[in-house]
Amino acid sequence: MRTTFSIARDTMVALFTLACASTAAAAQDASFGRFEVRPFVGAFIPAGSHEGSLNNGASIGLQGAYSFSRYIAAVATVAWAAASEEASFFQPDVDVYQYDIGAETGFDKQLGTTLTLRPFLGLGIGGRAYDYTDRDTEAQYNLAGYGGAGAQLSMGRFGWRVEVRDYLSGFTGLKGELNERESRNDFMISSGLTVRF
Fold first, then answer.
1. Total tally of structural domains belonging to the chain
2. 10 Å Cβ neighbour count for 21?
3. What residues does 82 pair with on adjacent strands?
């Protein structure tokens, strides 16, 4: 639990630092601000001790972004993954909900007159919920933070994006059965369309 909250604190400090830097950059390039909408599909992959709790699952989600400058953007993401309980013989379905805010930094590399490649790094914090699909147990809510990397290929207003996020979250068990909150690790690999406004 202490580890999860120290990561959350460090993530918030990093986001605050990025926000301050983006404010200065926006003052120099105020005309650059743009919104992006990014629907995606992907995979939810538990790692480490989390593999003993959940199986891999497909995921879908939606991401919104606002570029403060050509280097810094704020990002908000909501995602749902269809997983199943690993430890149970019947392996009941578990809905995994992820919602977070973060920041991205990257740079544009022109590949031609209209094609642009943008590698990026991201950092964020948010929440995670686990909920059995067909049981009356209460959903379990936990703090989660991520670090991510990926690339986006754009042509005008449209593009295609691939991202890998490494999540670290608190975990009280799928039914809240753990006496103390523990740390868990998983990955989300996603790919999807981007539309810039």
1. 1
2. 16
3. 58, 95
- Name the token pair of 182: 């523990």
Structural domain that includes position 141: 2-196
Neighbours of 133 (CB within 10 A): 11
Structure tokens at 148: 């991510």
- Confidence grade of residue 32 (pLDDT, cut at 50, 70, 90): very low
32 DSSP 8-state letter: G
The answer to whether residue 39 scores a pLDDT higher than 50 is: yes
CA-nearest of 188, 191, 43, 174 to 124 is 188
CATH number of the domain where residue 163 is located: 2.40.160.20
CB 118 within 8 A of CB 87: no
Q: Which residues contact 12 (CB under 8 A, 6 or more apart)?
A: 125
* SS3 assignment, position 10: helix
Task: Report CA torsion sign: 52, 53, 58, 63.
Answer: negative
Tell me, yes or no, if the pTM score tops 0.85. Answer: no
Q: Decide if 194 contacts 36 (C-beta within 8 A).
A: yes
| CA separation for the pair 142, 144 (Å, rounded) | 6
The residue type of 60 is I
Q: What H or E segment, with its residue span, contains residue 27? A: helix 2-28
